[in-house]
Amino acid sequence: MRSSIAALAAFIVLACLFTTLAAAAATQPAIRLANYNDGEEIRFPVPIIRGQLSDADQTAVTITNTSSNRDTRQMNGLALKGQFKALIELVPGLNQLIIRSGKEELPFTLVYKPQTTPYIVRVVYLTDNIGNTQYQTPIENDPQDYANKLDTAMKIMQSFTAERNYDLNFGRRTFNLELDENGKVKVHVFKQPEPAAFYYAMNDVPWWGRVASELEKTLPTTYAKNVAVAAYTRLDPETGKVRGHTALGGGGLGLFGSGNLFTWPSKLADVQSAFMDTRPIDPKKNFSDSVGRHTFWGAASTTIGATLHEMSHTFGLPHTREPYDIMTRGFDHFNRAFTLVDPPCANNPKTVEFADTKVACFPPISAAALVNSRWFAMDDRSYNDQTRARVDLDEKGETIVIDSDSPVQYVGFDVKGDAVYHIVPAGQKHITITLAEVRQKVKSETFNIRVWDDQGRVYGPNGRLRTLLRGNNR
C-alpha cells in the first residue's frame, strides 16, 4: 500500500514538472538574444549578435535595421541547431532592429554612440613609387576594391575585440577607427618613394623600420596606430617565394602584406560567406597563408586574424602561450567568432563543429592589459604624462617593489617574450611581490615585467631588477 502511494506521488510530481516545463517552453520567445539587451548602448558600429532559436531546424536568420538607409540595412546570419550568429551595421543614435527566423520575429533596439577618444587606428594602403594599387589575385576580373576590403576587415576586428572583452566582463572595450561622414573607414593610400624592388630587397625588420619612418612624416603616431598593408606583395611562381610580405607589429606600426587580400570580404554582408568559402587556393600559383587549409576561408581567417595580432603588438601586447589567443596562432581561428562551423578544407575534408572554448579570443592575460591602453579609453580624457612608476628590488634583493605615481592596473610577467602570468591590482600605487613567488609562478629564474598604470603607460624593470633580468628583456 505504501509503495503504491509513493509511486502515485512520484507520478504526480513528474506530471507537474512536465506540465511546468511545457508551459515554460510555450511562453519562451522563439528568438532569444544571448549577448545584447534591448536598448543597450554600444560604442562601435557593427555588433556580432548571438542568440538561440526555438526552431532548431532553421539554418538562417535575417536582421533588418529599420533606422538605416544604407546598403547594410538588411543582413543575413547563420543558424545551426538552435544557435545563431549575425552582423548588422548601426547608424549613430537609436537603431530599431528586427531579427526574423522563419515566421518568427523579435524587435529590439540598440543605441550606437560613436567613440570620442582622439586615439585612433589609422588604415594605410602602401604602393610603390609608381602608385600601383593592384593586389595579386587569381580571381578573373577582380574589382580590386581594396578600400572596401580594408573597411570591412577593420570593422570586424573592432567588433571581435569588443565581444571578446565583453565575454571577460571588461565591457565592450575596443579601439576607435577613423571613419568618414558615411561611416566608412578612411583608407590612406600612401605612395612610397622607392620602387617595389627596393622593398623586396629588405628583410622584414629593416622594411618595417623604413615604412615606419616614411609614414611618420605625414601620418604621425602620437594619437594613431598605423595599420599598413602593402599592395605590392607578390608570389613568384618560379621560386615559390613571396616578395613584399611580412607580419610585423610594434610601436606605431603594424605592417602586413596583401597576398591574400583577394579572399577578404568586400562588404559586411559577405563576412560570414567569406568565412564559409571553400574555393581552393593553389599554393604553387598563389600565396596561401592559411596553415595548410588552402581555401579562401582559411586564408581570410588567418590573414585578418594576423593583422589584428600585429595591431595588438602596437597596443603593447606580447605573445602568450594560450592556444586560442589572438596573440598566438589563435588568430588562425578568427573566423569562428562569426560562424558556427569550420567548412571543409585541404587538410580536413569534413565540416567541423567547435566549442565556444575553441574560438579565437583575447584571454585574461592579454585582455586585462589591453583594456588599459589609451587606444581603448573610448572617450576623450586628459592624461598626466608627468607620472612615473619604479619597478625594482628591495634592499635585500628578495622582493619586487612597484612604486607608482598613478594607480597600477596590470602587472605582467613574460618568459622569453611570452606573457605567462599576470596580476590585476585593485588600483594600488605600492605593490610588493617576492622574487621567489614570481619565479615559482612563471617557472623560470629569469623573466621580464610589464607594469601598466591608469594613465595608459607601460613600465619595465629599473635598477637592480633590470640588471638581474638582463638578457631576458626583449
Task: Report on this structure.
The chain has 3 domains: 31-112, Immunoglobulins (Immunoglobulin-like, Sandwich); 120-370, Collagenase (Catalytic Domain) (3-Layer(aba) Sandwich), CATH 3.40.390; 389-469, Immunoglobulin-like. Helices cover 24% and strands 27% of the residues. It is built from 9 helices and 25 strands. The radius of gyration is 25 Å and the shape is globular. The model is unreliable at 20-25 (pLDDT under 50).
List keywords for this structure.
five-stranded mixed sheet, 25 strands, globular, Collagenase (Catalytic Domain), 9 helices, single chain, eight-stranded mixed sheet, 474 residues, Immunoglobulin-like, 3 domains, alpha+beta
Number of domains: 3
Under CATH, the topology of the largest domain is which? Collagenase (Catalytic Domain)
Total strands: 25
Identify the overall geometry.
Answer: globular
Q: How much helix is in the residues?
A: 10-25%
Number of helical segments with 4 or more residues:
9
Computed structural class: alpha+beta
What is the CA–CA distance across the termini? Answer: 80 Å
Q: What is the CATH-assigned architecture of the largest domain? A: 3-Layer(aba) Sandwich
Q: Report the sheet-strand fraction.
A: 25-35%
Q: Flag low-confidence runs.
A: 20-25
Q: Describe the strand arrangement of the main beta sheet, using strand numbers.
A: 1-3-6-5-4-7-8-2
Sheet of most strands: 8 strands, mixed
What is the radius of gyration? Answer: 25 Å
- Mean pLDDT, to the nearest integer, reads 94
Q: In the CATH hierarchy, what is the class of the largest domain?
A: Alpha Beta
